[in-house]
């Protein structure tokens, strides 16, 4: 490769080569690390030169013979750049004010320097009143009984007055039991007992009842909970809600039998 190829770096960086010479130099550049490194150092210089017009270049050439002309030229360039920068600031400020007028947002005074010039006033807010939330049942709810899948079984104990609605759903792992209890007084500790047809039993859930109870005159909300048992649906004989005292003695409150 000739020395001329190495001398084309500046011409290529400034974009003065014709198409054929540019392609030839690019082929040379792909294999010459020295030219590639020199080209990389010229990129910032080319960026600076791109901001200088032709008239300024001609004036700078004349300053080689007239030092006073160099000073006047540099001062003129600085003034021109300062005016350009201020025009950009004013244009941006005008755009911000126009945006504020369209969006209904008020803006503070615009400063004529390089600091942040936009300060938005908070838009007035209109207070809204959200609707009061509907009361929800306590515990993991089963919701509206009409919308629950499974076998529905209702029972009321004539002695305790406790009322229950249970939904039994057969699962691969056994049986899911959704329970709804009302007229359940408190305070007390309760448990849910599953009795199989082979007379074995299993406690599948326990809970505490507050003093106001559930589904009572003090607390009208029912207790809703979900429990599971490994027993298959066809193996369950009855399900019973029991009250357990401090000594661990269980007393039936309500029973769903003949399952």
In short:
Helix content is 33%, strand content 24%. The protein is of the alpha+beta class and 259 residues long.
Question: What does it look like?
Answer:
Keywords: Membrane, Transcription, Transcription regulation, Transmembrane, Transmembrane helix. It holds the Pfam family zf-HC2. InterPro entries: Anti_sigma_zinc_sf, Znf_put. The protein contains six helices and eight strands. With 259 residues, the protein is of the alpha+beta class. Among the domains are: 48 residues, no CATH class; 112 residues, Immunoglobulin-like. The strands form two sheets. It has a four-stranded antiparallel β-sheet, with no helix packed on it. Strands 5-4-7-8 form a four-stranded antiparallel β-sheet, with no helix packed on it. Helix 5 packs antiparallel against helix 6. The radius of gyration is 44 Å and the shape is rod-shaped. About 16% of the residues have low confidence.
Brief descriptors of the model:
259 residues, alpha+beta, four-stranded antiparallel sheet, 33% helix, transcription, membrane, Anti_sigma_zinc_sf
Topology (SSEs and partners):
Blueprint: H1 3-7, H2 9-14, H3 19-29, H4 33-49, H5 54-62, H6 67-103, E1 151-156, E2 163-170, E3 175-182, E4 188-196, E5 201-209, E6 223-229, E7 236-244, E8 250-256
Helix pairs in contact: 5-6
InterPro entries: Anti_sigma_zinc_sf (IPR041916), Znf_put (IPR027383)
Keywords: Membrane, Transcription, Transcription regulation, Transmembrane, Transmembrane helix
Biased composition (Low complexity): 122-131
